[in-house]
C-alpha cells in the first residue's frame, strides 16, 4: 500500500507542527515528535466487520506474521509489503501501537493489492501458505499506522546509557491494548513463573513444522528451560520489545471475542460479573505508573474465559486462557531468550491460533457467523 499524498502539517506561520509529550520519556523527561499526515487510496476493511470466527482467527494469525504496510524512513516513502510484527521486526522496526483499528481485513478481490504483495518480505509464512504450501503469499490482514514505530538499528547503534534516554522507554500505545509494563514505563514485579511454549499435535503440528521445521523444537527448548527458574531475575532496564506488541495483540484478540456474539444473538438475561470485570477493566485503563492496572487482576483460568465469552464462543476459551498465561509474566527478565528468540511470544500466539484454525477447518459447523460487533449486551 503506497501513499498518494503525504507531508507535515504546518501552523499559521508555515512552520512544521511539533507534538510534545511531557513526562512520557524516561525519568519524566520531555519527548518531542514531528507528525506526518498521509492519504492513501481506500484498501481493506475494519476489523469490526470480520464476518466469522474462522476469518477473525486467520486475520489475527497474519497480524502476528505481518500484514501489508507502508512506513517512513528518513523522510522517504518505502513500500515494504508484508512487513509487520515478526516480519517487520526482522527488518529492524517495532510497531509499538497494536490496536483494533490498526489491524484491518485485507481486500478480498483486489488484484492490484495482491500483485504488490507477491514480491514482499515474507520470511514468516502467512496462514494461507501454512494451510496450503502451494499458495503464494496472501495476507488476510493489513497492519497500518507506524506513527509510533521505532527503529531497532538505532537502538543497536547507541550505548545502553543513551538508549534509555531515548524513545525506546517511551510510553507508546493505545490505552486498552498497551502492554502492562509499557503502560507503567517499567518492568513488572517478578510475581509469576514463566510459561512454557504451547505445544501442537496432530494436523496443526504437521502444518506448523512444514513451514518451521528447524525452529519448532528450538523455541520449545529455549522457552521451557527457563520456565521453572527460581533464581532472582536478571537486572535489566526497561525497553519496549517485540513481546510487548504480542501482549497488545492478545488484548486485541480477547477484546474482540469478548464483545462478539452469533448472528442469531438473543440478549443474555443473567448478570455476568466476569464479563463486567473484563469490560470495565479494559475500558477504564489509562497508562500511568501512578495508578493500578486493572488488567493485572484478570484471571487466566479457563472457567473465567468461558464465563466472559458468549456461550456459542466458549470453544475458544482454552486458546484465550493459554495466551493469557503466556503473556502474564514479565518476559523482560529473560535476557538471553529475548536476544536469541525475540519472536517467542508471537510464536506462542500463532501456535494457539493455528490450533483453532485447524479445528474449525476440519469441522466447519464449529465456525460462528458474527452479529455486527457491538450487538452483545456487555454489562447486564
UniProtKB/TrEMBL annotation:
Pfam families the UniProt entry points to: Pkinase_fungal
SUPFAM superfamilies: Protein kinase-like (PK-like)
Record keyword Kinase present: yes
Boundaries of every Fungal-type protein kinase domain copy: 32-256
Coiled-coil region list: none
Entry-linked InterPro entries: Kinase-like_dom_sf (IPR011009), Pkinase_fungal (IPR040976)
Membrane-traversing stretches: none
Swiss-Prot/TrEMBL keywords: Kinase, Transferase
Gene Ontology molecular functions: kinase activity
Protein name: Kinase domain protein
Organism: Rhizoctonia solani 123E
Amino acid at each position: 500500500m503506497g501513499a498518494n499524498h503525504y507531508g507535515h502539517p504546518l501552523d499559521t506561520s508555515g512552520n512544521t507542527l511539533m507534538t510534545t509529550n511531557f513526562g512520557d520519556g524516561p525519568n519524566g523527561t520531555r519527548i518531542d515528535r514531528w507528525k506526518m499526515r498521509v492519504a492513501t487510496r481506500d484498501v481493506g476493511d475494519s476489523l469490526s466487520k470480520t464476518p466469522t470466527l474462522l476469518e477473525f482467527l486467520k486475520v489475527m494469525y497474519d497480524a502476528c506474521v505481518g500484514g501489508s504496510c507502508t512506513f517512513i524512513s528518513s523522510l522517504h516513502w518505502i513500500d515494504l509489503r508484508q512487513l509487520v510484527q515478526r516480519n517487520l521486526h526482522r527488518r529492524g522496526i517495532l510497531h509499538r501501537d497494536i490496536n483494533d483499528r490498526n489491524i484491518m481485513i485485507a481486500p478480498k478481490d483486489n488484484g492490484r493489492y495482491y500483485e504488490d504483495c507477491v514480491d514482499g518480505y515474507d520470511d514468516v509464512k502467512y496462514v494461507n501458505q501454512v494451510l496450503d504450501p502451494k499458495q503464494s503469499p496472501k495476507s488476510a490482514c493489513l497492519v497500518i499506522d507506524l506513527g509510533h514505530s521505532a527503529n531497532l538499528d538505532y537502538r543497536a547503534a547507541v550505548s545502553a546509557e543513551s538508549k534509555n534516554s531515548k524513545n525506546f522507554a517511551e510510553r507508546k500505545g493505545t490505552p486498552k491494548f498497551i502492554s502492562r509494563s509499557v503502560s507503567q514505563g517499567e518492568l513488572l514485579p517478578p510475581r509469576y513463573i514463566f510459561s512454557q511454549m504451547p505445544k501442537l499435535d496432530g494436523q496443526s503440528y504437521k502444518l506448523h513444522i512444514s513451514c518451521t521445521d528447524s525452529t519448532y523444537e528450538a523455541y520449545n527448548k529455549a522457552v521451557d528451560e527457563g520456565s521453572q527458574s527460581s533464581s532472582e531475575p536478571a537486572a535489566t532496564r526497561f525497553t519496549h520489545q517485540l513481546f510487548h506488541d504480542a501482549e497488545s495483540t492478545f488484548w486485541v484478540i480477547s477484546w474482540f471475542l469478548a464483545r462478539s456474539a452469533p448472528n442469531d444473538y438473543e440478549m443474555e438475561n443473567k448478570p455476568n460479573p466476569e464479563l463486567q470485570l473484563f469490560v470495565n477493566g479494559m475500558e477504564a485503563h489509562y497508562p500511568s505508573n501512578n495508578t493500578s492496572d486493572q488488567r493485572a487482576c484478570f484471571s487466566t483460568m479457563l472457567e473465567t474465559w468461558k464465563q466472559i465469552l458468549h456461550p456459542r464462543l466458549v470453544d475458544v476459551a482454552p486458546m484465550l486462557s493459554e495466551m493469557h498465561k503466556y503473556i502474564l509474566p514479565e518476559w523482560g527478565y529473560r535476557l538471553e531468550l529475548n536476544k536469541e528468540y525475540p519472536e517467542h511470544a508471537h510464536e506462542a500466539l500463532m501456535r494457539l491460533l493455528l490450533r483453532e484454525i485447524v479445528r474449525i477447518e476440519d469441522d466447519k459447523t464449529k465456525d460462528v457467523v458474527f452479529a455486527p460487533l457491538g450487538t452483545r449486551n456487555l454489562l447486564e
